[in-house]
């Protein structure tokens, strides 16, 4: 898995916002990939009215598409190429190093720094070709829109490990999908202050369900804001865990791709990203950090939530 990057993503100018240009510039000089304009894919997920609104907002200057999300003169161009890069990554098995992120972007409105839902568009692209798609969302926030878009689908499984409670709300254990999609949403709500051992247990516990789904392709909503020094959440992962997660994904699935979501500490973000890539690529882990652990009260809270999730899902999956 290699990085797909282009300076067009720096045209999304958000100033001093937490989701800003420095997230990518912190990585230094990167190889530049010629990427596809993803505008033609937008209507796989988004309404024409919403697409037009973001395009017009960008054309007329800058503003807020919602209280958290900035649109600048270059935002529409960056966003459509982020979609294109994610589609490219899904075909080549690579990592789309893009911004703006996507997993909070709804079909008809923006949310949480996101304009267009890159991972959902790529998933729908492949689902339309008859593939079973697994989305693993390791961002510390629930990908609320991705969950909503696919909650009735039995062709796309959405699996999220996230802090609960936290923005954007939702993501509790009882949200397991609806209709024919019941059982195909796996929410693992992690208590604030959860450390490495809780996150790894959560991943390893529900990994057999994801494997039982037997996906043809696996997309990773790769957010790194669960790190202990990130600015926006209260989870406590070390950089080591991103390596371990990458290694587990690589060992258990084929046809894997990823697209960038969160991760806002620009000193820590590169270490998380490269550790994840090292894990996926079965390379030596280049960054290490002391493992974190959780208070016993936090672990008890997590165990209760895990038990509820397992109870709700066991009627749908033999692996539980």
CATH class: Alpha Beta
Q: What is the fold-level CATH name, i.e. the topology? A: Arginase, Chain A
The name of the CATH architecture is 3-Layer(aba) Sandwich
Radius of gyration: 18 Å
Sequence of secondary-structure elements: EHHEEHEHEHEEHEHEHH
Approximate strand percentage: 5-15%
Question: What is the terminal-to-terminal distance?
Answer: 31 Å
Mean pLDDT, to the nearest integer, reads 97
**Helix content bin:** 25-40%
Overall number of strands: 9
Helix-strand blueprint:
Elements: E1 3-4, H1 22-25, H2 48-59, E2 63-64, E3 70-71, H3 75-92, E4 95-96, H4 118-127, E5 133-137, H5 144-150, E6 156-163, E7 185-190, H6 196-213, E8 217-222, H7 239-252, E9 256-260, H8 269-280, H9 296-313
Parallel strand pairs: 1-4, 4-9, 5-6, 5-8, 6-7, 8-9
Antiparallel strand pairs: 2-3
Name a few traits of the molecule.
320 residues, alpha/beta, Arginase, Chain A, seven-stranded parallel beta sheet, two-stranded antiparallel ribbon, 9 helices, 9 strands, 35% helix
